[in-house]
Amino acid sequence: MSDPLRTGPDVVESGPGVSRRTLMMATAVAGVSTLAPEMLAPGRAAARALSADEERFLAVSKAVTGHQDLNPDIATRLFAAMVRTFPGYGARIEALSHLTQAGGKPEEILARAEEANQRQTMLGLVAAWFTGSVQDKTNAPMVAYYDALMYRPTHDALPVPTYCFAVPAWWTETPPALGVSVTSPVPVPAPPPPPVGIQSPPPAQSKVLPTKPPAKEH
């Protein structure tokens, strides 16, 4: 039977029978679980909650661009860059927010923004999302490049500039059929050929009778 009063390098004084090594391992696991959960599950770190101003900016951006799948992280960075570039930008977004509450397409919101003297604010916001830059000028803050909305319409057939599909010199290969994305993960059959028109025979023509010479007078 072990002596409960024995002390040494392997026994913790406050807990008889609990080794120092066990306590250190338990403390390390608890610390990692509390301070760095992303280390236990890579890629699953909790996303930072948006502030009220960022939530408003994201909602307004979805309304004026017509895209409901905007990236919240890009929205956060873009809003911060716009606030640093344009004084009082938060108040402008708040004014646009009131104009978007009535709903409607971006064209309809633009008409209301023009009446409220917010046309340039809305157009500047749309341009920022489509170009990924705060301003159309040299050395303007660049917030997004690959994810700029202007590259979406041709994303299935053309890469974003400076990027490429698959391997280098991919453009030397035979292009896919129309409607088939270059980056399609599985082969997609080509669309069927257009139907061939059926030609109907011309209607039968009545036989033309030969003309008779006029009768001679006697």
From TrEMBL:
Residues 186-204 have a biased composition (Pro residues). Pfam families: FAD-SLDH (PF12318). Transmembrane segments: none annotated. Residues 184-218 are annotated as: Disordered. InterPro entries: FAD-SLDH_ssu, TAT_signal. It comes from Gluconacetobacter tumulisoli. This is Sorbitol dehydrogenase.
